[in-house]
Amino acid sequence: MTVKKNRKRLALLSHGRPPTVNATSKRLSSTATRNLIRSHHRLLKAREKAVNDCDDDLVKSIEARIKENGGLESYQLASKAGQSLERGGDSSRVLVDWMSSTLSQLKRSSFKLRVLEVGALSTQNACSRNRIMDVTKIDLHSQESGILQQDFMERPMPTTDDERFHLISLSLVLNYVPTAAGRGDMLKRCGAFLTKTLLPGCPLSNFTPCLFLVLPTACINNSRYLTEKQLQEVMASIGFNLLKSKETSKLIYQLWEFNNHGQNNHKRYSKALLNPGAARNNFAVVIND
To answer: Which residues form a coiled coil (predicted)?
Structure first.
């Protein structure tokens, strides 16, 4: 009975993340940052496997190790360090740059684009400082007063367009979801929170809502179960088309436009071996009915 509950809870982001402890204020080097993040993800994957194997003792043991390593707060500390200016800056600068044409059309008006930033770590990033973006920030463990502590998978479904957004940001969030099916569920859920409806008098024309997605490069370029082509097919099946893409040695930035309003014709995508290799990772996205 306990195992069944654990499996069900993994569908929620909060139950895929570990307990938290006080984070150290010590400055992290770039090497320490990478090691902490990688170790954290390895432990999460080991916990997922232990849950699927119904090994409750191993689950508890892994959770204890996660806690010893600092839990979610230490992971967030490492993520913040990775987004510091001396290490490349925050990813939302790419989103603001990509949306510059749309934002310039709104510059002389009072209209703003509603943005939902999932997994927000700061209230001082590029989106937050842009006066034409009205940003709602949520995270599992809020570190600032301007960030709502909330699990996106538990956020109440919108019932009106006023409760929806023109942009959603998932920057280094999807790779944190512990299961392939959970990642597919998160992407499908994003569609329900997007709207192309603008207020009367808005100077924008032909506006399409978008999803900003940032993933570690290895999730796509070094996975056994996901390729760039496969990701585009998966996203197309749930109404998203790739608009822009940028790749660095560490990250892949993508902007997806959403055109599937009012439809529910999702194609199933299971976990299939595409790129065999001992050195590859198991990152995948599964779309169920």
So the answer is: none
> Do 239 and 153 sit in the same domain of this protein?
yes
Higher pLDDT, 129 or 38: 129
What are residue 223's phi and psi, to 5 degrees?
-100, 145
Task: Tell me the pTM.
Answer: 0.75
Q: Which residues line the annotated binding site for S-adenosyl-L-methionine?
A: 119, 139
Shared domain check, 115 and 26: no
Q: Are residues 144 and 48 in the same domain?
A: no
Same domain, 96 and 82: no
Domain containing 83 equals 2-87
From residue 200, alpha-carbon distances to 108, 162, 285 in Å are 16, 13, 38
Q: How far apart are CA 65 and CA 70, in angstroms?
A: 9
Q: What angle do CA 116, 27, 140 make, to 5 degrees?
A: 30
In this prediction, residues 31-52 reach a mean pLDDT of 61
Handedness of CA 137, 75, 188, 7 (dihedral sign): negative
Question: Looking at residue 247, which CATH number applies to its domain?
Answer: 3.40.50.150
Residue 110 lies in a domain: yes
The answer to the question of residue 274 being in a domain is no
Asked, for residue 146, whether it belongs to a domain, the answer is yes
Q: Quote the pLDDT of residue 289.
A: 73
Summarize pLDDT for 198-247 with one digit per residue, the tens: 988 899 978 999 999 999 999 999 999 999 999 999 999 999 999 999 99
Query: Residue 274 and residue 228: Cα distance in Å, rounded?
Result: 11
